[in-house]
Amino acid sequence: MTFLDPSSPSAELAAADLPIDGAELAAFIAGKLCHDFISPAGAIMSGLDLLEDPTAQDMRDDAMNLIRQSAKKMVAHVHFARVAFGAATTSEQFASAELRGLVAGLSEGGRATLDWRIADGESFTKAQSRILINLAWMTLGALPTGGVATITARREGDRLLLIGSAEGARARLKPEALIGLKGERLTEGLAGQWIQPYWLWLAVNDAGGRLDVASDEGRVGLIARTGA
Description:
Structural class: alpha+beta
Strand order of the largest sheet: 2-4-5-7-6
């Protein structure tokens, strides 16, 4: 699989050179988070409605299971978002095991399998962690019908390589995702499919690194190269 380099040169771009400003970026991310949260939140409300419906008391166990599973999914989204998009956490270092748990919490019950091959004792800075879990989630997202998303990390001198490899029958990146991974502004298509890839590119660029992408039939690869 040949990697293409859709990113800008490794020198960090000035804010004025970025395709969208901070306020617009915040609006796109807020929209994505609302989209992620609305499904489990709506399912919790549906479960509560069933509990309050006197004609549906025979479905009480089903309602409780729906509420429990949806609340778990909501919490997983919140924990992931705090590291992937936010700055609320005070931690400056994250262990590999903790980051794996953030990604696994979102992928539980999905069609793709997460193969996390980074030793539990390895740790990453806040900036590296943001890149790593966004890259891992993008790798899983490239497997809509199932497959294996393998996540690895390798240190080469003063560089850190964070690598995601998606292998499955229909592994692919959507056109909006490819635009985002190039650090380009979306001109047509779905913003919700574009913002996280663009955010990944922006995180790599802010770290003074570069993002390489490859997409062949049945396989997608992502490599983020940053300072170690």
